[in-house]
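Quick one: structure tokens for this chain, please?
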Amino acid sequence: MHLLEQLKKHSRIVADSGDFESIRKFKPMDSTTNPSLIYAAAQDHKYIHLMDEALAYAHRKSTDTQKQISLALERLFINFGLEILKIVPGRVSTEVDARLSFDNEGSVKKARELIALYKELGIDRDRILITIAATWEGIKAAETLSKEGIHCNMTLLFSMPQAIACAEAGVQIVSPFVGRVLDWHLQKHSDHAFNNAEEPGILLVKDIYNYYKKFAYKTEIMGASFRNTDEILALSGCDLMTISPTLLTELEKTEGMIERKLDIEKARASELEKMAMDQKKFRWLMNENEMASEQLAEGIRKFTEDIVKLESLLLRRYITKYETI
């Protein structure tokens, strides 16, 4: 039996892609998207109809070009989500604009708008995960949304303080970025060769898993940003894993046996102590964690850059379709 089939027995597999054919091929339960994945997919001509539909929607809703591009961007994210939901039986993650990462009220407002758009198109909120960056403001926004029955997936998570604050907020899912944690350490300590047992991203996910299971938090853990299949196998048993098509292909082509690495009973038997987390402690601990602070900021900047690129792509297409008539 190949590794992917075995892995599905221990963890819920999520496709990390904006490409529908890849998602269809691997039959995951759920799928995640982000601005970078949508930007990459939107440049493929086979998805241009989704952009055109988004622009047509915006053109009907407003006569102001800037507002039209904003509406089209939002609708483009929804369009990709709709197509993905035709393929997966579970949920799709749709991201709140990264430029709202430090705006509590703005994030709540945008999330509600996304859920309302999905509802207009016949999609129940239980099939949607609203993705928000795990800043303090983002976590507080997710807390408000969770109380309204809107499920949130906290992204760009690199530390225990973020994970604890998210669990206390009652969010649905946290997505610790395994590979990006390693990237930072390799950059800072280029002379050190990490093995799986000590790889910092893997240790972070294990710590979060043990803490959540020890104290019976309902928040799910979705390992993300994997760089190789060894990282994935080292976290077998994690609630969910979002995996790129490249690594899914490698897992599908490899035969072997998988041992479950994360165990609920062992986590419950651990001697961990519960930590209270308020805004002051969160900000101080994040300030003390150079890696988490830098990676969170860099991730927000990168998603923002790709959102701006998407808006430019939409604007060029808008001019071609409407201003030359």
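The domain at 3-320 is CATH 3.20.20.70 (TIM Barrel).
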